[in-house]
Amino acid sequence: MTHPELTLSSEVKNVTGVGSARAKMFASRSIRTVEDLLYYAPFRYEDRCQMISVHDLRPGQTATIFVKVLSCGLVRTRRGKFIYDLSAGDASGVQPGGLIRCIWFNASYLERSKTFRAGQHVFFYGKAERDAYGTGNLVITQPRFEILVDSVPRASNSLEIGRITPIYEAIGPLSPVVIRRLVWAALENIGDRIPECLPPSIIRRRNLPDRAGALRQMHFPPPDTPLDALASFRTPAQQRMIFEEFFAIGVAMALKRRQLKWLPGIAVEINDRVREAIKRFLPFHPTAAQKRVLKEIVDDMRSSHPMSRLLQGDVGSGKTLVALEAAVVAIENGSQVAIMAPTEVLATQHYLYCKRLLSPLGYQPALLTGSQSAREKLQIKNLLKSGIIPLVVGTHALIEQDVEFARLALAIVDEQHRFGVVQRQNLVRKGPAPHVLVMTATPIPRTYALAAYGDLDISIINEMPPGRTPVLTRVLSESDRARTLNFIRSRILAGEQAYVICPLVEESDKLNLRPAIRIHEHLAKDVFPELRVGLLHGRLPGEEKESVMERFKTGEIQVLVSTTVVEVGVDVPNATVMLIEHAERFGLAQLHQLRGRIGRGAAKSYCFLMSGGDAGEDANERLRALADTQDGFRIAELDFQLRGPGEFLGTRQSGIPAFRIANLLRDRDILEQARREAFEFVERGASADELDDFTRQLQARWPGRYSLARLG
Ligand code: ADP
Ligand code: MG
Predict the structure, then answer these.
(1) Which residue among 88, 91, 178, 395 is buried most deeply as judged by most CB within 10 Å?
(2) Which residue has its alpha carbon closest to ligand 1 atom 14?
């Protein structure tokens, strides 16, 4: 049943079987058009070509079986728990007679929902095991299932049986079975009206299957498709769909880059005066890595096009110093510099650092944050506008409408992952075309960097300043607490300082965690009554935060109880001990970043990861991995693998596109290839027509994503 008017851009409700109710459910997952539906890929496949009969099923085997329900219902165990118990007989027709049980724990919902009835035909997928009651039958615990609506499928032309069946993630009440039928209907309806979208030259070069065929095979693979290739999304059809997605984003990024290269930037000049200024303010010899990276940055700034660069390096590798060198270059060229930091604590600290370091040069930096008085802010804004202030450090306050610069040549965004793409853009817009330097707080995996910052050039500091002793890291449990607190006391009596980090500020009803306020009280009163214990968290008013930080810096506060507000960039070299409460609650990258607050001086430093009682073995293993290495790039990679792209760095607004088919972890090799092809295509390969065509398509198909990628 083709549907003569249906095209990829038709609304999904025009597909046979989709009414307005279903269209609404689809919309909840941003599936609005036929194309959106066809790009909703199965997340796995089941081989139902050769159905295995219950009779042939062996203990330990994971398989799909096709059975008829004989009886089902809730049974109560001797311990008073409820188990949903279902018995079924083979219906595969291969070898009749086999019986099997399926059970679900605590599943009274299955009873309430009347999901199963005797006589139904059902597919079960799961691992068969010997029945613990010694009946000789097999049992599958909590199997996945699919209930057939018609009694017995016609063997031919069924979407459910006799084929490799695609399994979709349910969308609310839209079950995998329903989605499968609707995708099938969409493919039938649209017939041959699925035009190719990749440029012909790319299809030829990479020898890719065409789009229509690839889409069909991704959903309904032919019977001879190797299952392991399907499972790992490595069939030519799947790879082509993944490539397509990465290629489109790659082209958007390459176009954005090219656009930047066309903009006239503010070219700086390097002469003896500039060199002299840098020499005069540098408090120490830069490392080789810092020198290399500074050269990359300055080379960009000398060109007549704006720089767009990401500076990566481990915590404490000296990124800030490099940024300040770049700032001095800009200022000596008569321009202004803005540094944006995500928190007030960090902005203030950067400001003080700049003031201290740049004072030999006679610059007057300014600080602009939300908590300043309106008068103070107005004064700074006026001085910025008239060009008198050469360098301003600030929070989001910097991107407010009325902040204007006389000649902004360099915009530095620190700890970029805390900011959205739009905020970065808003800072950049404060000048006609300033050079942009984005700094990450911690290293990020290459795949992630390419996807999130693929439009930027990347500089990496892969070396630590000299004189660092590695931080000794230990995973501890509650029984080690007393000993650890004693150890902390001894370090402090030796003149050093300590952090105690907690995940929460206040008591929470839901989480059984030790919050900062309570820990502070306990430490100050009961544990370290003779020491000066301070408290820092995000809910303190701005001045109080500043004063606490200041007192910690001067050594007046000896033990600082804090939430993760100290995570970013805080620099107190005399602090040598860090105790992290409920360390299992944090991601590895974040823990590494926290740990980077210590080990900044010459004295030996210690990081204690206190893991909660119910943390579990997995969590503890994760923590031990952190204890074993200090290489931020390795930790980032590990964290990325463990937590997936979405949760990495604990943020979802980092500007990383939401991929429909591709998966950054699984498909990193395709990302690299597609990106190379895309840049090649934009910079050299494409004919003007091909590029125009593709650009137009990009804009039509991904209006939101493309505009995000286009500005910077
Ligand atoms: P990051 O921003 O990369 O975390 P910072 O720029 O804050 O690191 O530097 C961490 C510490 O190391 C600071 O105290 C800084 O003054 C110091 N530092 C930076 N570069 C050097 C260097 N080349 N030699 C010695 N110390 C350095
Ligand atoms: Mg920093």
Answers:
(1) 88
(2) 571
